[in-house]
């Protein structure tokens, strides 16, 4: 019997992807360089990949959408004033790379650890 694509565990983890995306978007407004938002992005994405090794790409897409949407909401609403708006913009434009790389790494590591046992 084929398992459904949207499992209950995946549905429970979708809000986690949205929250982590909003945290990553907000971190770009607080930071003075792009290193902190990228570090937070890679760690959150690796965690999402670890939670869903087979469907981590879907969580990465949701997280990327939350990063982009969160950036535009914060920027348009002027919710978080920043001294360096270029850092937040640059971190948002390049967010896809660490998001998908981190999700792949987390899923790969979980599959590798499960195969060992």
UniProtKB/TrEMBL annotation:
Keywords: Membrane, Transmembrane, Transmembrane helix. The chain crosses the membrane at residues 16-44, 56-74, 90-109. It comes from the Bacteria. This is Uncharacterized protein. It comes from Arundinibacter roseus.
